[in-house]
């Protein structure tokens, strides 16, 4: 579904580790250290930490609810496509699987389902499984304005469902609205600001899920960098397979770093997630490399995630609380070749990525 025709321009960016740690949406938290207990790194008592027990009732406030950003690095969960409009039963089963089998803390939604009440089902399943959600307003690739209705429905549900603000970590405009030129950057900024205002009472941050290439190169002169300034956190698409320099996944760290360094140097210390992040096991009409040496197979899909594990400490050290990465995507039924599961529901390779280091 992602067609890359543009040539990637590599820009030398610099690591900058002294940027202010500005987290306007992060609730303040008091940490009590109980010196009587031999603390063997107990799980942080916050949502959606691994080991956190969901309360039996909906809390009355968001104080001390969300985990601090600096705990949300390494593997955090899956991109999860909803275009098949999964039933509530299926959402519950798969969110529980993400939580228990893979120690996922989040799902990052991808695609769209316009069924009435669908986001209520997402909230229900996420609450039940004890995982957070990166919600998404889907623009699609057709340039139509269906996203306006989706935006209104989603914003409405975030306000009306009492559990929604306790599971929704961020609202994304996506996927790749800048890359797809669906809105001019000033119009996208207007949308981001309006959503921030709309969601301020719920303390839900707003972002745009897109490539470094889109902010840095494609929209260098018409406001791409201003979009980066307007968003609360960074949802970076890291898809090194499409680089003109791609070969095998094991060689892709410099490509990842090029884009990461752009987000570090231009991102004002904001929290960074790799929201759409992976390496395909097969090519398809929408998944074609821009390098003749790029290899798509299961070994490379597996190697790519192992590479991120190998660089866990580097990702943890990134300003803003370290990089939390999502695996794109949960199943080959959702996007061919990117799944951790194949279309028959079997794991394509052992997958137990680090959640801390
Ligand atoms: C947020 O937007 C939704 C959808 O447009 C609207 O129904 C709701 O009233 C808005 N809420 C606030 C607080 O602005
Ligand atoms: C990539 O590196 C890993 C770890 O060193 C190794 O097991 C794997 O075979 C390598 N993959 C390829 C395609 O060379």
Question: Please, how many domains?
Answer: 1
Bin the strand percentage: 5-15%
Helix content: 25-40%
CATH C-level category: Alpha Beta
Q: Which architecture name does CATH use?
A: Alpha-Beta Barrel
Distance between the termini: 33 Å
CATH topology: TIM Barrel
Low-pLDDT residue spans: 1-39
**What is the mean pLDDT?**
90
Considering the protein shown, what is the CATH homologous superfamily?
A: Glycosidases
Bound molecules: 2-acetamido-2-deoxy-beta-D-glucopyranose
- Largest sheet, if any? 8 strands, parallel, barrel
Instruction: Give the overall shape.
Output: globular
Q: What Rg is obtained from the alpha carbons, in whole angstroms?
A: 19 Å
Strand sequence of the main sheet, in spatial order?
A: 1-2-3-4-5-6-7-8
Secondary-structure-based class equals alpha/beta
Family: Belongs to the glycosyl hydrolase 17 family.
GO biological process, one term: polysaccharide catabolic process
Function: Glucanases play a role in cell expansion during growth, in cell-cell fusion during mating, and in spore release during sporulation. This enzyme may be involved in beta-glucan degradation. Active on laminarin and lichenan.
GO molecular function: glucan endo-1,3-beta-D-glucosidase activity
What labels would you give this structure?
binds 2-acetamido-2-deoxy-beta-D-glucopyranose, TIM Barrel, single chain, 14% strand, 8-stranded parallel beta barrel, disordered N terminus, 10 helices, alpha/beta, 357 residues, globular
Task: Describe the structure in your own words.
The protein has one domain: Glycosidases (TIM Barrel), CATH 3.20.20.80. Strand 2, helix 2 and strand 3 form a beta-alpha-beta unit. It has 357 residues and is α/β, with parallel strands linked by helices. The chain has an eight-stranded parallel β-barrel, surrounded by eight helices. It has ten helices and eight strands. The chain starts with 73 loop residues before the first strand and ends in a 30-residue tail after the last strand. The structure holds 2-acetamido-2-deoxy-beta-D-glucopyranose (2 copies). One 2-acetamido-2-deoxy-beta-D-glucopyranose binds next to helix 3. The site of one 2-acetamido-2-deoxy-beta-D-glucopyranose (NAG) has 5 residues, from helix 3.
